[in-house]
Amino acid sequence: MEQKGFCIFNSIYSSDEIQSIVNLIDTLNTSKPTFRKSEDLFAIRQFIKELPEIKELVFNKNLQSVINTIAGNDYFIVKSIYFDKPEKSNWFVAYHQDLTISVDKKVETEGFNFWTSKHNQFAVQPPLSLLENIFTIRIHLDNTDEENGALKIIEGSHLKQIYRPETIDWKTEKETFCNVEKGGIMLMKPLLLHGSNRTINQKRRRVIHIEFSNIILPEETNWAEYDNYTKN
């Protein structure tokens, strides 16, 4: 992951564990403002906050072992989203880096720029060192490949700091599709250039996206979704 910006582990969850996760998600009331629903996409922002019971199912021994191996045991949740691309989804995501974090309020702080606000949650671009500290785990509830919206990435692009997609030199860069089996996970660095194509095989793709850090934010700013999952 340090060199390429990502890695993939399959068989983290059994079929029964995945079904339990899906069944619990299906119990949610989808009318809340943190939910986004259209023909192309269903998304739940602040997913762990909306469904705290999911932690017991998501953080099984296999996932905790991966986290401890990759990062140690002092990391905590800072952001979580559930994505569901339906079978006929034409949702397309252009290449980008994840350059913002979610915080509880706006506090003008040196090095924190480009503030935005949506649904009582603030987003801001923090210093590069903070972005480099974060890692993301994407839990796949369905088989995912290049025909149903698997992430495509530019290997090693996370090492180039802020990397504008319009400057990609396709003569030297390598595009890779990150196919992940149902019950598998993908780990990635937020500065990795990534995107996804439209679904063309009419197969559903559901993913739980969780970001982790071990940095306490400065001043009076707090992570919007801080959750020390290992102590619950």
Strand content: 25-35%
CATH class: Mainly Beta
Q: Overall mean pLDDT score? A: 91
- Strands in their spatial order, largest beta sheet: 1-12-9-14-4-3-2
- C-alpha geometry: globular
Oligomer: single chain
Q: Which key features would you list for this structure?
A:
alpha+beta; Jelly Rolls; 7-stranded antiparallel β-sheet; globular
Q: Which helices and strands occur, and which strands form pairs?
A:
Blueprint: E1 6-9, H1 15-25, E2 35-37, E3 42-45, H2 47-50, H3 54-58, H4 61-71, E4 76-85, E5 93-96, E6 101-103, E7 113-118, E8 121-125, H5 128-133, E9 135-140, E10 151-154, E11 175-177, E12 185-188, E13 194-196, E14 205-213
Antiparallel strand pairs: 1-12, 2-3, 3-4, 4-14, 5-13, 6-8, 7-8, 9-12, 9-14, 10-11, 10-13
Structural notes for this entry:
The protein has a seven-stranded antiparallel beta sheet. A four-stranded antiparallel beta sheet has the order 5-13-10-11, with no helix packed on it. A three-stranded antiparallel beta sheet has the order 6-8-7, with no helix packed on it. Helices cover 16% and strands 29% of the residues. It has one domain: q2cbj1_9rhob like domain (Jelly Rolls). With 232 residues, the chain is α+β, with helices and mostly antiparallel strands.
Short description:
This protein has 232 residues and is α+β, with helices and mostly antiparallel strands. Helices cover 16% and strands 29% of the residues. The radius of gyration is 17 Å and the shape is globular.
